[in-house]
Amino acid sequence: MDALRTDLYQLTMAAGYFHRGMQDRRATCEMFVRRLPRHRRYLLAMGIERLLGYLETLSFTEDEIRYLRDVPALRDAMTEPFVEYLRRFRFRGDVAAVREGTVVFANEPLVRISAPIIEAQIVETFLLSAMNHATMIASKAARVVRAAGGAGVIEFGTRRTHPEAAVDAARSAYAAGFVGTSNVEAGKRFGIPVMGTAAHIWTMAHATEEEAFENYVATFPSASILLIDTYDTLRGAERAARIAKDKLKGVRLDSGDLLALSRAVRPILDAAGCTSAKIVASGDLNEYKIEALVRAGAPIDLYGVGTDVVASIDSPALGGVYKLVEIEQEGRGVVPICKFSEGKATFPGPHQVYRFVDGAGVLARDVIALADEDPRGLGEGEPEALLVPRMKSGARVEPAEGLDVVRARVTRELARLPGALHVLDEAPPPPERTDEPFRPVPSARLLELVEDVRARVVGAAT
Description:
- This protein is about 40% helix and about 20% strand.
- By secondary structure, it is of the alpha/beta class.
- It folds into two domains: about 10-120 and about 330-460, nicotinate phosphoribosyltransferase, CATH 3.20.140.10; about 135-310, TIM Barrel.
- GO terms for molecular function: nicotinamide phosphoribosyltransferase activity; nicotinate phosphoribosyltransferase activity.
- Catalyzes the first step in the biosynthesis of NAD from nicotinic acid, the ATP-dependent synthesis of beta-nicotinate D-ribonucleotide from nicotinate and 5-phospho-D-ribose 1-phosphate.
- Pathway: Cofactor biosynthesis; NAD(+) biosynthesis; nicotinate D-ribonucleotide from nicotinate: step 1/1.
């Protein structure tokens, strides 16, 4: 199942490998981000659990195979032997990956897949789709949480993206530190707290604002958060406090000058005895606006953020790529592979990332090394190996991690970042950024291998 959630060229290449007798050749591919997006000083790796679930169940159904027989680009290749191969197809490869919620940087592999080349090839599109999207959302959400300080942040973005992407975005945002989501399906699927009140249409559907508030409180006496800015925000606050009284859990501001309004609403609620009522603010918020509100001392307890998180507006796409790093070649054994294209060069061989922290537990340096290197030769300290085995021969080597475990990891990961990596730069750096305040370094052995491969392939080409 899900085998058609891919690009056509994955299937044309798969057919080519099969018909040329290459289907059993072992290949190793890695997913990484060549350079950090603009406005990002780190990324939070996410989407790995979804990828593993996909790999566990990946197969071609009869209906999918029938469809592929009629795809013009595949028609010549859909012979009975290849069709039978597709019927029996399962992912039987090995996977190593960083843990979800791990901070990663440019050129560091997030996932390494070693499998027969058709298996390694077919999974590329889904892998990149799932991980690019989830990592993009989590990395944005972490910035919003940081900007909010001690205030909570709720994910409100379902209506601003595709329905399935919205569920994935809610999970990623919650993992990055949001306290809840408005998306009910995400709540059911992942156990995320579901939060929300009523929209302006509820108030406008009643003859008066008073009637709207009275009916809402009567329906939800233990969960009354009232939207007070439909007509006149300050009068709305007075009415909410007078009608709900001690049942008022909070009020929401969705428009206007949130700093001035929150400052005016707080004393209204307190004077009416609603001192425990929260102020929730929403309306086109992002980390920059929230940081300014927090810095100004706005008495806001919760922020609702939607569009800016689910669309990651300042960096709306993550350019993660998936590249071949090693392959078994006839008569030559296993051969390290890399690209030397300008601006798109890659490192050869399977890799490991070793993370070193200083005496205070703060991130000091990352070293991208070959997977079989002894970390004791990479410098002082006891490094952490970021990529860990997740699947062996197509089966998980450990149970799926719970979302609470991922959230706890994010908290630890962000706490050990140097302060410079938490700075919010609203003015973007140049498109080809040269200002990354933290850059992993390749090991000496890896650089030697690069030159060995260069001599082999460039020499062969000439």
